[in-house]
Every structure is written in C-alpha cells, then in structure tokens.
Amino acid sequence: MDTLLAIASRRDERRYEPDPLPDDVVTRILDAGRLAGSASNRQPWTFVLPEGDDRREALAPCVFAPDNVRGAGLVVAVVVSGKGPVSFDAGRAAQNMLLAAWNEGIASCPNGFADRDRAHAALGLAEDESPAIVLTFGLPQRRVLPVADGDAARAGGDSLVQIATGKCRERV
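Below the sequence we write its predicted structure tokens.
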C-alpha cells in the first residue's frame, strides 16, 4: 500500500470479528512498533499484551471504550518509563503499529485511559512504568477499503499548511 494512501485512508474501527489474528501478522504489527524512532534511540517503551479473559477484563474498564478491549483479537498496552519525551516516543511507536495493521487489512483503535492508575495495576506494571495508550486490533466486522490514489485528499480531515516567516503566518 502507498504510505500516503495508508495515512489518508486509515480509520479507527471499534468492532472486530471474534477471530484471532495470525501470529505472523501480530509479529509484524509489534515489530513496526519496535522499529519506531525515539529520542536518543532510547526506545522507552515496552509492549504489554494482556492475555487471558481475566487480564483483559481487568483492563477493559480502565479505557474509555471497554468493549474495544473485550472484543479485540490483539490488545497492546504501550508502556513507557524514563524521562524526556517518552509520551511522544510512545505515540510514534503506536502510530507505526496502527499503520502496519492497516497495511495487513487489520482494523485498529487507540484507546485513552478513563483510569490510568487502575490500568497500571491491571497490567501489573512496576512503579517506574506508566501506561501511555492501549491499542486494540482485530479483523474488521465491516470491510473498509482505502480510497483510490487520486482521492487521498478527500479521505478526511482538514488540510492545513502553515508557513512561518518572521512575524507573519500565512495559511495555504
């Protein structure tokens, strides 16, 4: 898939088929996160996969849309530690995983925390670790196709470019 088309056409999906994801696809998704850039190449993240119904059920009410966790074929908590722009680095890893999944025809959704402290406990994290985001992945219940190459600009979102020169900004 063309990278810009993948970026323009990827949408968050919250309803998944109950089927598990193939192991090779899971590996490619996680590897895409591992390969993300980070400040000073520190890679301040760990990817925690809450497996088993008990672990997922403990995590589900910690996010804003609990059914995303309950119904996903793969759940990945991006956990960070250390100082500096670790949240930004976690976002870079998360975006890599979301785009890699889309490339494989896998739906995905980032999930924010309704209760970060409870998520910390549900994931069994150390004191110096912090959950950054929970990503859910699965086979989509409804097929979403990427837009045609020429339609990438119409795929959604506002187009905004700002050019800053001296004291003035121009919107193009």
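The two ends are 28 Å apart (CA to CA).
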